[in-house]
Amino acid sequence: MYSRPHFKEYVMARLVATAVVVFMVFSILIYVVVPDTRDVVLSIALLALGFTVFILFIYRGARHMQKELATISRYLKDLEKIEKIDYKTHFFILEFEEINQHLITLLKGAKKREDIKQRYNAKLKLKNRQRADMISAIAHEFRNPIASIMGYSQTLQDDPGIPEALQKKFLGKIYNNGNKIEALLARLILWNKFESKEANLHKSRFDIYRLANEVKTTLEESYKGRVIHLAGLPRNVEADRMLMEVVLKNLVENALKYSKETVIIELSDDAISVTDKGIGIKSKEIDKVTKKFYRSGTHSWDNSMGLGLSIVKTILLMHQTNLEIQSEEGQGSTFSFMI
What CATH number belongs to 128-195? Predict the structure, then answer.
């Protein structure tokens, strides 16, 4: 079976064949032209020596070129596996050097595309994991209010003779659980706007004390028997009023859920804080509670799908401020921000 020769073999075969033919022709000419036999032998010997030296130099050059070709061939063969091309490699032939530079550029581009692909795949995996967490959180958070609504409704339907006072109580429970579902849906919609970069600030000037008092009144109606103390003086700020209401409501409601004592909203000259005397947060978890979908193994901080504090953090960042958390396990927490 025919096997194609290597570069060096091909060059040497052609060169030796040509050299032999030329040597034979010139030897015959020397023999014809030069009358002295000694001179003929000496001339032919010198001619043979010259061709030998010439072939030797060509052989060394061809061998060097074959090595350079082998290096380029190895790069091309392992282009997807090779981590980097040896930048210290220098080629005797200009064209080979140019090919090497092109290979370096090609490899850089391939590595860059591979890095982009890996980052995209990592981001896609994170999104898929978040989506799975989101579905799990939605199922968990919606299950209780839906079960309550179905349970109270079924009781009212199965027993028409229930006393009127008890009927009103059950209807109130159904209404409250409906409000919980509505609040969860509102939080999902708001989070989706942040994720899709569709949320915009609509700033206006308003009294933050008045807004805090409205949040206080609303939550005291929802959490019967709980006390929310508002300290501070009226003060006008420039911010998105609706989003600031979301921030205050999330922080206060979070405090109400995880403490049984009075929750304090305090307004100072440049900051707002919400303090509770509840279960507190472990020091190792303080940096985690504002992450999306984070849920503690011991107790679910911000149990509304792990989004509440994440939404608060995002809103405050849009207002160019940060959420500060000071907490001690078993003693309580303070959530504050500058505005």
Answer: 1.10.287.130
Q: What is the DSSP string of 117-167?
A: HHHHHHHHHHHHHHHHHHHHHHHHHHHHHHHHHHHHHHHHHH-TT--HHHH
Indicate if the pLDDT at residue 208 is higher than 90.
Answer: yes
Q: What is the DSSP letter of 266?
A: E
Give 32-46 pLDDT, tens digit per residue.
777 777 777 777 777
Three-state secondary structure call for residue 299: coil
User: Strand, helix or coil at 228?
Assistant: strand
Helix (H) or strand (E) holding 267: strand 263-267
In the chain, what's the furthest Cα-to-Cα distance? 145
Q: What is the pLDDT of residues 98-136, one digit of tens each?
A: 776 777 777 777 777 777 888 888 888 877 776 776 677
Name 327's Cβ contacts closer than 8 Å, sequence gap at least 6. 280, 281, 283, 286, 333, 334
Distance CA 315, CA 312 (A): 5
Whether domain 203-338 has CATH 3.30.565.10: the reply is yes
Burial environment of residue 326 by CB neighbours within 10 A (0 to 12, 13 to 18, 19 or more): middle
Is the per-residue pLDDT at 301 higher than 50?
no
For 213, how many CA atoms within 13 A lie in the half-sphere containing its CB? 10
Kindly compute the dihedral angle of the four CA atoms of residues 55, 58, 60, 64, in this order, to the nearest 10 degrees. Answer: -160
Give domain limits for the chain. Answer: 7-77, 128-195, 203-338
CA pair distance 321, 311, nearest whole angstrom: 13
Q: What is the mean pLDDT of the chain?
A: 79
Q: Which residue has the higher pLDDT, 200 or 335?
A: 335
Range in 5-9, 84-88, 221-225, 297-301 with the lowest mean pLDDT: 297-301
Q: What is the pTM of this model?
A: 0.55
Q: What is the CA 210 to chain-centroid distance, rounded? A: 40
Give the Cα separation of 328 and 47 in Å (integer). 99
Partner residues linked to 271 by β-bridges? 338
